[in-house]
Design brief:
Radius of gyration: 27 Å
Number of domains: 1
Number of helices: 2
Strand content: under 5%
Shape: elongated
Length: 68
C-alpha cells in the first residue's frame, strides 16, 4: 500500500519530468484565470485635450519651469 506522502512525491516527480528542461517549476495551485477583474471592464481611458497637455507642461514642478 502506498503512503499519502509517497503518492505526493511521485506526483511531484512526474510533474518535474514532464516540465524538464523548462525553467519554471510545476504549479500545483488552482487556476486564477476565472477571478473577476479588479477594475470595471467598461472603464475607458481619459480623453486628454491639447489644452490639458499645454497646462500640464506649464504647471508647477515641470522641469522646464524650474530655476537652476
Amino acid at each position: 500500500m502506498t503512503k499519502p506522502h509517497d503518492a505526493k512525491e511521485k506526483k511531484v516527480d512526474e510533474a518535474i519530468k514532464e516540465t524538464f528542461p523548462a525553467s519554471d517549476p510545476p504549479a500545483f495551485g488552482r487556476s486564477t484565470g476565472n477571478e473577476p477583474a479588479n477594475k470595471p471592464t467598461s472603464r475607458q481611458a481619459a480623453v486628454i485635450s491639447k489644452e490639458d497637455i499645454e497646462a500640464a507642461r506649464q504647471g508647477e514642478g515641470h522641469k522646464k519651469n524650474q530655476k537652476s
